[in-house]
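hey
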């Protein structure tokens, strides 16, 4: 699936953000702990979700349960 189609693609599953305490990047603007997000794509290390900005973003799986 092309990354251009992720916004209109069906949701694979829903995940809950557990924290937004990043060591290297600022994710507090895009993630809210306790909020559920729609997963659009997933790899071994990353989850691609529709974040608080309304766009698809890739985040480490450690932020979610």
């Amino acid at each position: 699936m092309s990354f251009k189609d992720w916004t209109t693609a069906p949701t694979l599953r829903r995940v809950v953000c557990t924290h937004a305490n990043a060591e290297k990047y600022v994710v507090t603007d895009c993630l809210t702990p306790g909020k559920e997000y729609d997963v659009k794509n997933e790899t071994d290390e990353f989850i691609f979700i529709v974040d608080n900005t309304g766009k698809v973003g890739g985040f480490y799986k450690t932020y979610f349960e």
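The chain has a mean pLDDT of 91. The first strand starts at residue 13 and ends at 16.
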